[in-house]
Automatic annotation (TrEMBL):
Alphabetical list of PROSITE patterns matching this protein: PPR
Taxonomic source organism: Ilex paraguariensis (yerba mate)
Protein name: Pentatricopeptide repeat-containing protein
UniProt KW keywords: Repeat
The UniProt record lists the keyword Transmembrane helix: no
Keyword hit for Repeat: yes
Pfam families: PPR, PPR_2
Transmembrane segments: none
Family note: Belongs to the PPR family. P subfamily.
Annotated PPR repeat ranges: 48-82, 83-117, 118-152, 153-187, 220-254, 255-289
Length: 307
């Protein structure tokens, strides 16, 4: 421990937090528990719930699900008190690892223990119960959340909008979109992306896109890319250029995904010369273009040093 010059528990906590944040979880574990979980004699600091939560979150960030489960069970063996943050992290782990029903089980366990949920925990459970038990159960839990005095945030509404759209209940999704501002929670780009992802009518998408911009919500690069890909896949070139033009008007410089979406749409419509023009423009900007048989081999410009 002396090598880190740790003066107190706060500095020790900050070190563990930084290690886990940057995915050096094995090193964090060794500092706390010693190699191969042989307790280190040098450790003079108390390993409280906060430290355990940091390490659990670290395994989560690494996506090492079996290690997450192992560490969660180890917390029980070590009689570590699991607080709201512990449960929030592990519920998120269960959702991300494809086991939302286990997150719902943890939520019920929390209620039995009398742990009061915050908005972050509720958002995770709403998503989990919506996937495992249906969108109506998710809406019911949202109402429970409001009744218990927990104020929803934009992520709460985005979760419900996404669940409704995934179940083709667009009218209800639009209704929530309209209510968000009235409830003091302005929609963001993610809210609109949730709806765009499920819509299949170009006119309806463009109408919502205009509504988004007029309401003051700036589309993100992934919004532009998603829309251009959708329109291109359907063979609608005019909407692709409408979106591209809006992107330029908003001062966004297209990334490789935006260029590739536009070029794919042009190639699909047989507009090879124009596609090649954007392909060359893309390369000139130092962006990576997809290899396309239709456009021929890439021309590599050799400098004087290459002869």
């Amino acid at each position: 421990m002396e090598q880190f010059n740790l003066k107190d528990e706060t500095s020790f906590s900050n070190l563990i937090d930084a290690l886990c944040e940057y995915k050096h979880v094995i090193e964090a574990e060794e500092l706390c528990f010693g190699k191969n979980n042989n307790k280190t004699k040098d450790l003079v600091f108390v390993l409280n719930t906060k430290i355990y939560n940091m390490i659990l979150r670290g395994w989560f960030k690494m996506g090492w699900w079996s290690k997450c489960r192992e560490f969660w069970e180890e917390m029980d063996k070590m009689c570590v008190y699991k607080d709201l943050h512990s449960y929030s992290i592990y519920m998120d782990i269960q959702c991300k690892s494809g086991k939302p029903w286990k997150a719902v089980k943890l939520y019920k366990e929390m209620k039995k223990k009398g742990i009061k949920l915050d908005v972050v925990a509720y958002n995770t459970v709403i998503r989990a119960i919506g996937i495992s038990e249906g969108v109506d159960m998710a809406v019911s839990l949202y109402r429970e959340m409001v009744e218990l005095g927990c104020e929803p945030n934009v992520a709460t509404y985005n979760t419900i909008v996404k669940l409704l759209c995934d179940n083709w209940r667009y009218k209800e999704a639009y209704k929530i979109l309209g209510q968000m501002s009235m409830k003091g929670c302005e929609p963001n780009a993610i809210t609109y992306n949730c709806i765009f992802g499920s819509l299949e009518q170009p006119k309806e998408i463009l109408k919502l896109f205009d509504r988004m911009i007029e309401s003051g919500v700036r589309p993100r690069m992934d919004t532009y890319v998603m829309l251009m890909r959708k329109f291109g896949r359907w063979g609608f070139l005019r909407p692709v250029f409408i979106v591209w033009k809006k992107m330029e008007e908003h001062g966004l410089s297209p990334d490789e995904f935006a260029y590739n979406a536009l070029i794919d749409a042009l190639v699909q419509k047989g507009m090879v010369d124009m596609a090649r023009k954007y392909d060359e423009e893309m390369l000139a900007r130092g962006l990576s273009a997809k290899p396309r048989v239709e456009l021929g081999p890439k021309v590599v410009t050799r400098g004087p040093e290459n002869g």
